[in-house]
Design goal:
Layout lengths: L1 H32 L15 E4 L6 E7 L4 E9 L6 E7 L9 E7 L6 E7 L2 H4 L14 E8 L11 E9 L6 E9 L2 E2 L2 E2 L6 H4 L2 E5 L5 E3 L5 H28 L10 H30 L6 H21 L10 H29 L6 H53 L1
Antiparallel strand pairs: 1-2, 2-3, 3-8, 4-5, 4-9, 5-6, 7-8, 9-12, 10-11, 12-13
Length: about 425
């Protein structure tokens, strides 16, 4: 009875931790991706119109002179690191980073002064094939500047900056594809890659500067993201490895009963698969809701894990009897596919931490500690299993020798 009460308390504790993680993580992520409030007044000048951009609390104010097709604009964003950068620009072809012409603001590594340098984001920059180097834009950029917003006097985490630019547009073209983002580091005068959270990858929009109509990529709910990550970490990352360990190390334990290992293994794997299927379904829904945001490696590993888990589930219904000659082939298939599913699931959990920008977080540390505890227990049980195996082999060898000695003595006595 005490064991059942303890198990219920442990289960309630785990559920409470998951709920806290979902609520806290959702609040943090929502705050990071929430739109700001726009104003036509900036430290540079006053403008005619403004809009709040959908991510990173960024805003854009502008005045458009139709007589000479000149756009006078000011983008306002915030730094996320004292050594970071903030950038915005336009893409003539599509609302995407590749092909955009941007102006980046960051501190001069030599003097500490705030710089505003132009950059062309060619496709090889997106692939990180080479460092990003400033060069003149191939569009009519008449003027550009960057100004920190009081009370900030230096670049620091949370400091707001206004990047102003005057651009001559093509006649009768008032629809612009805007891109913006921010990063943690600048190497020399080269901004490094920005974070890859969903809000960062969705930092682009199409704006009509005459009507202020805006088209932007939808941002996935932060709570949905954390539900997806929590379910998958609990299922593919913990329950399925625990189920595999139960099958391997509980089966030789005769005191637990001949079928105890099977029921424990089946129940754990069934729970893990159901939770993993729910997390996978959330991932599919999130992908469908954000067609412009793609995590190829994470998606591929998720599909592979879900496929392997489904095949394992189906294989249970086609398990041959122990006397069937094909039983050994089924066991080899079941073991290889099961261990492969566990490895892929654990790797994908770590990949999800990177996707969510939690590569150096306490959540990842907590998962690593839980996984290390499981691995340590498995190593100890594996060593114990080998010791028992070797001892039995030695005992059987001694018994065979004793039997052989008895047979030899009997034969000698017969003659």
């Amino acid at each position: 009875m005490r064991g059942k009460v303890g198990s219920m308390r442990l289960l309630l504790g785990v559920l409470l931790l998951l709920l806290l993680a979902l609520s806290w993580g959702g609040a943090v992520a929502a705050a990071a991706g929430a739109p700001g409030r726009c104003t036509t007044w900036t430290p540079v000048k006053a403008y005619a119109k403004c809009i709040a951009l959908p991510t990173q609390g960024a805003t854009l104010a502008w005045t458009y002179d139709a007589r000479n097709a000149t756009l006078d604009a000011a983008f306002t964003g915030s730094f996320i690191s004292p050594s970071g950068w903030v950038a915005w620009g336009v893409n003539q072809d599509a609302p995407a980073m590749a092909g955009a012409r941007v102006i980046a603001a960051f501190s001069d590594p030599s003097t500490g002064a705030l710089l505003a340098l132009p950059f062309v984001l060619s496709p090889d920059v997106k692939l990180q094939a080479k460092p990003l180097v400033s060069r003149p834009l191939d569009i009519p950029l008449l003027a550009s500047s960057a100004t920190l917003i009081a009370p900030a006097r230096t670049v620091r985490d949370g400091a707001s900056v206004t990047i102003a630019a005057t651009i001559r547009l093509s006649p009768n073209r008032t629809t612009l594809h805007l891109v913006w983002n921010r990063g943690l580091y600048v190497q020399g005068y080269s901004p490094t890659i920005h974070p890859t959270d969903a809000s960062d990858l969705a930092s682009h929009a199409t704006v009509d500067i005459l009507t202020t109509a805006t088209e932007s990529s939808p941002i996935i709910s932060a709570r949905l993201q954390w539900a997806h990550g929590s379910l998958n970490a609990l299922s593919w990352g913990l329950l399925l490895p625990v189920g595999a360990a139960l099958a391997r190390y509980l089966r030789p334990c005769a005191s637990a009963g001949p079928a105890a290992w099977f029921y424990a293994h089946a129940a754990t794997q069934a729970a893990g698969y159901l939770l993993g299927a729910a997390g996978f379904a959330l991932g599919i829904a999130m992908g469908a809701a954000s067609p412009g945001v793609t995590y190829k490696l994470h998606r591929g590993l998720g599909i592979a894990a879900a496929t392997a888990g489904s095949l394992q589930t189906l294989a249970v219904f086609f398990r041959p009897k122990t006397t069937n000659r094909y039983r050994k082939y089924w066991k080899s298939y079941h073991h290889l596919l099961g261990y492969g599913c566990v490895v892929i699931g654990v790797v994908n959990v770590f990949q999800r931490f990177e996707v969510m920008g939690l590569g150096a977080s306490y959540w990842k540390l907590g998962y690593c500690m839980a996984l290390a505890t499981l691995i340590g227990g498995c190593v100890a049980l594996e060593v114990n299993a080998w010791v028992v195996f070797c001892r039995r082999q030695q005992e059987e060898k001694l018994m065979r020798r004793e039997v052989e000695d008895v047979v030899v003595k009997d034969r000698a006595a017969a003659f």
